[in-house]
Amino acid sequence: MGRENHKLKAVNLIRSKICDPKSVLKLESDSPDCNYSKLKFMITSSITEACNNSILLLGPRGSGKIVVLEIVLGDLLEEYPDMISVIRLSGLLHCDDNCAFKEIARQLCMEHQLVFSKMASFDDNSQFMIAMLKECGLAHKTIIFVLDEFDLFTQGKQRLLYSLLDAMQSVTSQAVVIGVSCRLDADQLLEKRVRSRFSHRKLLFLPPSFENSQRLLEHILSLPTDLSLPNEYVDEFNRKLKTMVADKRFKDIINKYLNYDSTVNHLLRFMFCAVSHMDLENGFLSLKNFETAFSSIQRHPKLDCIKNCSVLELYILVCLKRLEVKEQTPCNFNSVMKEYQNMSGQTSDKYGRNVCLRAFEHLLQRELICFTDSRGHSYSVEYRQVKLLISAAELQQGLKAHHSCPVTLHKRMDHEG
């Protein structure tokens, strides 16, 4: 029972490491060249030297922008608890200038225990923000504005960005504006008057390389020397992990996964899935755990839909793909029927027009095909133009996985491919 307990404890320990952003960041946080160190230095300088700053964190989704920012802000709030005030906005919620100024006023009032007025006008909230920037500057307190989905704030007249950056030109204010965006050209979206007030400091977040991903994986999955776990078990676990990580088959799985999705966020999800398949009787991670995790993550809902289609629905999908190859798109049900009649002329798989129409409508419900124009509701289904929502590779894979797909249909699809 004791051995079972420590094996379960080891699994829970690894899971907690995977879910803890700090354990992921710990691998690189000591390096002065990592984004964590750079961002912390920039914000710390603004706090201690009482200067204004504006920074952009750029990179694809899942590359760790928000995670690094939150850890930096958490560390700084512990180091300078009375010198920082954090205001958070999201372009998905507050891209309208009026809404953004109201949310800033609300958060400032909450932070400084003031009464917030819901009836305050745009100008009132704007003036209140500028006044608070001056007051906090005189009190040597830095206001950090975090603008998530920064590129959405560049739509419209950009009054929020202009007001913020313009107020930061004053020697009495003390603020840092941090924009977070997936668009690498986010700073080019700024108007000339806004761009001239921007500091043009940018930190680029990129998915890790294969070597860094492997290093991160080994760092997260290895067990620390802990008094609650037997030393012999920890040593054997880490030794087997190193042997597995060095295995060519394991490297092939990781390489395939990184080609599928190379962001840190998804790599952690992949690790969590692999650890969840660990055999508690054995108590060690195996190659099979990662193979199972890869196959489960790689699942595609469209492929599952194709596998559950009828033979007639498969014929219609292949007809649509053939029309695509012939560049006869967009097409409608009538053109699909002509192609189907040409295909089924040499086979016994022949169905009536009404049956084919029901199968066609079923494919629309499954969202394997869709209408190209949402405005043609007054037209009959037969005459509305449609397009395929799956690629040729997905269709081929679906046909191979289908338990009763005709051999002739396979051959026709392979010929088209």
TrEMBL record:
* GO molecular function, a single term: DNA replication origin binding
Record has DNA-binding as a keyword: yes
One Pfam family matching this protein: AAA
Q: Tell me the superkingdom of the source.
A: Eukaryota
Q: Where is the ATPase AAA-type core domain?
A: 55-201
* Ranges where the Origin recognition complex subunit 4 C-terminal domain occurs: 216-398
GO biological process terms on file: DNA replication initiation
UniProt keyword list? ATP-binding, DNA replication, DNA-binding, Nucleotide-binding, Nucleus
- Which InterPro entries does its entry note? ATPase_AAA_core, ORC4, ORC4_C, P-loop_NTPase
Report the family membership.
Answer: Belongs to the ORC4 family.
Function (record text): Component of the origin recognition complex (ORC) that binds origins of replication. DNA-binding is ATP-dependent. The specific DNA sequences that define origins of replication have not been identified yet. ORC is required to assemble the pre-replication complex necessary to initiate DNA replication.
Name of this protein: Origin of replication complex subunit 4
Q: Name the species this protein comes from.
A: Quillaja saponaria
Lineage, highest ranks first: Eukaryota, Viridiplantae, Streptophyta, Embryophyta, Tracheophyta
